[in-house]
Amino acid sequence: MCRFLVRTIYRPVTTSRTKSTAQVYKGKDEILLSKLILEPTHSILTQSYDSRLRLDTRRPHNGDGFGVGYYTSPALGPAPCLFTSTIPAWNCINLSRLAAKTTSALIFAHVRATTSGTLADANCHPFRHRALMFMHNGSIAAWPSVKRALAASLADEWFLFVQGGTDSEWAFALFLDSMQRQGVDPSGEPPAGRGFGHGVLRRALRATVERINALVGCVEPGGLDEEGRRSLLNFAVTDGVSVVCTRYVSSRTDEAASLYWSSGTSWRDEGGGRFVMERRDRGADIVLVASEPLTFERVLRKGAGMLTEGGGGRAVDNWVTVPTNSILTIHKQTVMIHPIIDEYYNHSPSYTRKSEFAKSKGLVSNAPGVTEVLTPAVVDLGGDGMVEEGKSEEMDAVRQRLEVMQKERQRGN
C-alpha cells in the first residue's frame, strides 16, 4: 500500500496489489516539511508503520520506500527537487534532517508498500519530468496483460522515459503522452507563475484514465473476471503552480481508494503532535490532500471563525471526502471538484457504493471521524477558463448532487 501527501503554496515492477499513501500541500506561504511529514500524530511517516485505514494484514507496513518532492526558488529552475529512498521512512535519519531544515510552498510526499516487484529508487514516487511531478495510489487492472499494449501506444520519447518497473510510472508516461497529443510539450518550460494551466493538466489526466480503461477493455475475457478489470486510479499531478488529483475506480458499484482534502488559513501546531487546520475566514491559504487524514480531531466553528470549547458553534471535521470518480483541482488556492462522467459514473448522488473491493486491496473508503462526506462547494467559474468549453454539463451535475445532499442533511437534522 502506498500513501502520498501533497502540499502546495500559492506563488504569483508492481502489480495490482501495489498500495501507497500520498499527501499534497498547497499554500500561500512556505511551510517546514517536518510540520507535514514528521510531526503530526498521524503524519505520513507514522502511516508508514501505523496506517489506521490499512486493512491489508498481509503487508501491515508501508516500508518499501518513500519519496518527497518539493519546489524550490524559481531562481533554481522550474523542476522540483526529489528525495527518494528504499529505506523505510521511519528508519531514515536523512529524511528527518532534511525535513527539519527545508521549506516549500508545494510538497508531494509518498510512502510505498508492494507485495511484488523490486525495491529500487526508480520505483519510488513521486516521479518527475522537467516541471511536472506525479504520484499514484492504486493499481492498473490486468497489468501483465495491459503493459505491452500501453507501452506500444506511447511515442518513443515517453517509452524511453520509463526507468523503473511500476505501473504507476508507466501511467505517468501515458499522462505525458496524452499531454503531448493535446498539443502541449511536457518538456517545455511553462510560463513562470502560470504553469501549463490547470485545464491542460486536468484534460491530460482525464485522457490518461480513459486510455487505461480502453486498454483494459481490450484484454481477452478468458481468465479475467469482472473484479480483475477494475483499476484504482488515484493520481496526483502538478506543474508547480496548479495541482490536479483524481479519486477513481473503473466500476459503477465499488468505492475508490480513500482520498480527503482540507483547507484553511493556517496549519496550527498545538504541540505534542497535534495540528489543527484553522479557518478564520473563507479564504483557503492552505490546501491539503491526503490518502488518510493527518488529524482525526473535530473542531468547533461558528460561521467562518474558529472557537474554543464552550464557545458555542458546532463541531465539524477538518477533512472532507473527495467523491468517488471525481477530479479535484487546486488553482490559486481555489478548490474545484468535477465529476468524471463516463460509463462508470453514477448520476444518483445518494447512491452508496460498496467498499469490499477497496478493502480487498488494503485500501478503505472512509476514515473514522470523517462524517461529512460531502462534495465541496464549487465556485462559479464562468468566464475565467476554469471549466473547459463543452464541459458545462459537469458543473450542472455537481450542483445537482450538492442540492440533493444538502436536502438530505437538512432532513436528517
Please estimate the helix content: 10-25%
Q: Describe the biggest sheet?
A: 8 strands, mixed
Q: Write down the overall geometry.
A: globular
How would you state the average pLDDT, rounded? Answer: 77
Question: With helices defined by DSSP (H or I, 4 residues minimum), what is the helix count?
Answer: 9
How far is the N terminus from the C terminus?
37 Å
Strand content: 25-35%
| Total count of strands | 19
Q: Uncertain spans, ≥5 residues at pLDDT below 50?
A: 7-18, 52-63, 300-316, 367-395
Q: Provide the succession of SSEs.
A: EEHHEEHEEEHHHHEEEEEEEEEEEEHH
Structure classification: alpha+beta
Specify Rg, calculated over alpha carbons.
20 Å
Quick rundown:
With 413 residues, the chain is an alpha+beta fold.
